[in-house]
Amino acid sequence: MTAHDAPARAASIAPTVGLWFVGARGAIATTATFGLAALASGRAEPIGLVSALPAFAGLGLVPLANLVVGGWEVREGSLAAAAAELVANGILPAHVVEAGAEHARAVDARIVPGTTTRKDAAATPTARARSAATGREQVRALVADLAHFRATTGVARVVVVNVASTEAAVEPPPAARDVAAFERALDDGSELPPSTLYAYAALSAGCAHVNFTPSAGATWPALRAFAKTRGLPIAGDDGKTGETLVKTALAPMFAHRNLRVLTWQGYNMLGNHDGEVLADPAHKSAKLRNKDAALRSILVDSPGLHSHVGIDYVPSLHDWKTAWDFVHFEGFLGTRMSLQFTWVGSDSALAAPLVLDLVRFAELALRDGAVGELAHLACFFKAPLAGGSHDFHVQAAGLLDFAARRSRP
Ligand SMILES: NC(=O)c1ccc[n+]([C@@H]2O[C@H](COP(=O)([O-])OP(=O)(O)OC[C@H]3O[C@@H](n4cnc5c(N)ncnc54)[C@H](O)[C@@H]3O)[C@@H](O)[C@H]2O)c1
Q1: For 184-198, what is the mean pLDDT?
Q2: Ligand 1: does its nearest atom lie under 6 Å from the Cβ of 38?
Q3: Whole-model pTM above 0.90?
Q4: Does residue 75's CB lie within 6 angstroms of at least one atom of ligand 1?
Q5: Which of 250, 224, 253 is nearest to 236 (CA)?
Q6: Closest ligand 1 atom, residue 242 Cα
Q7: Is 380 in the pocket of ligand 1 (CB under 6 A)?
Q8: CA of 198, closest atom in ligand 1
Q9: How far apart are CA 372 and CA 223, in angstroms?
Q10: Which of 85, 158, 226, 344 is 20 to 30 A from 185 via CA?
């Protein structure tokens, strides 16, 4: 072995880590899976990956080449077919998909039917059959899937990441209150949101749980308490990738200059499957709540702020989210001015590297024995589980502080 070979060998003998997706053939999971193959083989640069920044080099994060991917899905299909759609829309480069074909076939073989809502007519018969069972039976089957994944791959630790379609927003039921109430609901035939069953199963199986969506996931007090009982880390909710990222980076500027924001009007158009799901008002409301709350919490010194976020499904745009924001503000002696920006981003290309970052940081938390909400990961989310500031600069500094403290010998 030459000195040149040493790092590669060191990486290959380090323990492998499982990345288990909920929604494993969706746009984000597919982009992350093919992107991972490209990054691990050195065919792509880690652009957009926060964890690749020099500030995090001392943390001993799991090498990307050591991630083993699997997951749950409820629709028919293959990663190859999902990738072909992303290539056609200019998200995934064709050469990345060609080179990652074998890796994707291996991942496809590890994708198993998940569970869904009882009225999800588009789900596969297996997923529909699962969702007809009691919550307890569904959880038992999900835990068995994770055990099988561990046993067949030999991964040392597993991070479960929810990138499934956004669920319809629900008022937290009594089952949300505490672990005992949730566990009673598992047995009494109540229908619980699938994202909460996945979160409970992940924690039961000793995995970290990351919720990249606005769905309930591990947000309810019952699930947060369960994470603590199980001694496991959780992170979420709702990835901050586009318009909200820009808003929470810009809004602090108005606050620090004591400029009064009168109106912040945002309008999003997107045409991918996520956009199709969000066209349903029940699903959209979960997303809008997170987007608006982040802005209002930063602009507390702008009394009477009028803000509105609109989301429309525009099929021809596919994954290219276009957001137009209009900010009307008041300066010295009441002089009125405005700022407008237009953001055109590929939702999947923005989200996929952050998902890989979150897996690396959550795996480190598992290794460190961190328990409950991971406050240092707030910069990745629209509604950070641990609360705290929505100001992107404060959140980014929080992650850097964590790295500096954790890397100190
Ligand atoms: N892309 C972004 O920038 C971004 C930012 C924040 C949040 N999100 C959220 O991430 C999620 C995924 O986004 P996407 O663009 O990949 O969506 P997508 O529609 O392409 O993929 C979602 C996948 O989840 C699957 N699914 C649906 N219900 C499921 C269930 N019960 N169990 C298992 N799988 C299920 C679908 O079949 C689909 O394959 C959405 O909830 C979205 O709101 C995305």
Answers
A1: 95
A2: no
A3: yes
A4: yes
A5: 224
A6: 3
A7: no
A8: 32
A9: 10
A10: 158
- Given a cut of 90, whether residue 7 has pLDDT beyond it is no
pLDDT at 6: 39
For residues 340 and 324, is the Cβ–Cβ distance under 8 A?
Answer: yes
Q: Would you say 286 and 214 are in contact if contact means Cβ atoms under 8 Å apart?
A: yes
Choose among 120, 129, 199, 214: nearest CA to 167.
Answer: 214
Q: Each residue of 360-402: pLDDT tens digit?
A: 999 999 999 999 999 999 999 999 999 999 999 999 999 999 9
Query: Is the CB–ligand 1 distance for residue 242 below 6 Å?
Result: yes
Residue pLDDT, tens place only, 155-165 = 999 999 999 99
| pLDDT of residue 403 exceeding 80 | yes
| Residue nearest to ligand 1 atom 9, measured at CA | 213
How many other C-beta atoms lie within 10 A of the C-beta of residue 224?
A: 18
By the 10 Å C-beta count (0-12 exposed, 13-18 middle, 19+ buried), 408 is classed as exposed
Taking the CA of residue 194 as reference, the ligand 1 atom at the shortest distance is 31
Per DSSP, the three-state class of 266 is strand
**Separation of 29 CA from ligand 1 center, angstroms?**
8
Residues making up the chain, counted from first to last: 409
CA of 26 to the centre of ligand 1 (A): 6
Q: Which helix (H) or strand (E) holds 27?
A: helix 27-40
Banded pLDDT at 14 (limits 50, 70, 90): low
Token digits for 170? 């629900």
Which DSSP letter does residue 279 get? Answer: T
Torsion of CA 161, 163, 167, 171, to 10 degrees: 40
The predicted pLDDT at position 409 comes to 67
Lowest mean pLDDT, pick from 39-43, 104-108, 117-121: 117-121
The ligand 1 atom at the shortest distance from the C-alpha of residue 123 is 37
User: Residue 12: pLDDT band by 50, 70, 90 thresholds?
Assistant: very low
Instruction: Report which residue type is found at 227.
Output: A
DSSP 316: G
